[in-house]
């Protein structure tokens, strides 16, 4: 691994707000080798990946299904026409009855109105009765089915070998089976909830090192929002294709978190709060994190990296503990909503920069629960959206 020779720390701006709090921001560039949960000796870093999924679909399958759907429409066409005629007949009956009812009502109201004196007619709120006849129902004959070639761009033309080829484990070579990974993937499940579309795709990941199971866990069972409209208003094929890719990307990241050796070249913007005395702990946390970020080097089994990460965690723990002091309802509190915003953004930014996306997502979810009380600026909202994209696309 190449050793990091330069770290750049650049002050970019500061923000002042109520209660004499001042927040400064700095950009820190760093490089590190992210060690996996399960280490593998260098000589044994080879792997094979097997994917088991319902997605063994070819171009011929898509075309055949399209023709079958068209033939089904042709077979059902005459029945649909007869159904449309019957429905029209029923609507005409209802229409005639409604017209008759309206005419009788008009006749009665006109008779009553004619009995009024001229003065009473002028004083009448609604004026003279008016007969309003609704439009006559129109017979809507369904169009004759026309065959159209399916849009192969949205079709799920994949198979298990293609899905497996999208997986790689950093620091390992393909071939061999010292690390043997099996991915058991279900088909995407869609559901409607409060007018929106949600989806999940339970995926079991089994990782064996030299025949010993190190990882056996099912992920992605929770439903996530994929569209702000219900399923009948979206292209389900296109959505499933995108969601499948998202699942593959997240699976790859889980494999690398657990087994891969990832060199991370990253830049992170971290904030520090200035107010002598009241925020000494937060300043101490900032120093712990930034000074130890600078000590990291992209080396495997490098002892100083372990010490630096342990010391950095001291700063992270101070930030986490400080969140319990935040009073989101009192703007004049020392630890007010602005301090809460500052702490959450630092924790999310740092974990994203370190490649710890699951940890970053945890803080993101906590922040989102407090957004009723935290009024983010336009720039903060934009940054939050960018952080969300990084988290959810990994």
TrEMBL record:
Residues 67-112, 350-377 form a coiled coil. It comes from the Bacteria. This is Tetratricopeptide repeat protein. Keywords: Coiled coil.
């Amino acid at each position: 691994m190449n050793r990091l020779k330069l770290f750049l720390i650049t002050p970019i701006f500061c923000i002042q707000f109520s209660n004499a709090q001042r927040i400064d921001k700095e950009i820190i560039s760093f490089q590190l080798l992210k060690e996996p949960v399960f280490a593998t000796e260098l000589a044994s870093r080879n792997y094979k990946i097997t994917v088991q999924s319902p997605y063994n679909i070819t171009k011929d399958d898509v075309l055949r299904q399209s023709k079958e759907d068209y033939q089904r429409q042709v077979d059902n066409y005459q029945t649909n026409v007869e159904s449309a005629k019957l429905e029209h007949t029923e609507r005409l009956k209802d229409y005639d009855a409604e017209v008759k009812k309206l005419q009788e009502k008009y006749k009665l109201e006109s008779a009553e109105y004619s009995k009024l004196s001229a003065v009473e007619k002028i004083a009448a709120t609604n004026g003279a009765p008016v007969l309003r006849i609704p439009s006559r129902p129109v017979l809507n004959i369904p169009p004759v089915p026309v065959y159209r070639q399916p849009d192969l761009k949205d079709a799920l033309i994949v198979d298990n070998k293609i899905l497996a080829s999208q997986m790689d484990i950093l620091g390992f070579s393909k071939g061999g089976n010292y690390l043997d990974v099996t991915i058991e993937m279900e088909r995407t499940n869609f559901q409607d909830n409060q007018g929106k579309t949600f989806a999940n795709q339970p995926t079991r990941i089994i990782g064996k090192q030299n025949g010993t199971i190190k990882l056996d866990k099912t992920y992605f069972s929770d439903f996530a929002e994929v569209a702000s409209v219900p399923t009948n208003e979206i292209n389900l094929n296109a959505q499933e294709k995108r969601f499948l890719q998202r699942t593959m990307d997240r699976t790859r990241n889980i494999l690398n978190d657990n087994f891969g050796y990832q060199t991370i070249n990253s830049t992170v913007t971290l904030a520090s709060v200035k107010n002598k005395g009241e925020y000494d702990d937060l300043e101490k946390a900032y120093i712990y994190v930034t000074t130890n970020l600078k000590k990291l080097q992209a080396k495997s089994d490098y002892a100083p990296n372990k010490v630096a990460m342990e010391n950095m965690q001291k700063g992270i723990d101070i930030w986490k503990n400080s969140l319990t002091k935040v009073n989101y309802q009192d703007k004049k509190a020392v630890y007010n909503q602005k301090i809460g915003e500052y702490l959450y953004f630092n924790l999310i930014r740092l974990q994203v920069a370190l490649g710890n996306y699951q940890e970053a997502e945890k803080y993101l979810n906590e922040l989102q629960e407090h957004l009723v009380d935290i009024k983010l600026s336009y720039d903060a909202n934009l940054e939050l959206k960018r952080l969300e994209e990084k988290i959810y696309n990994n």
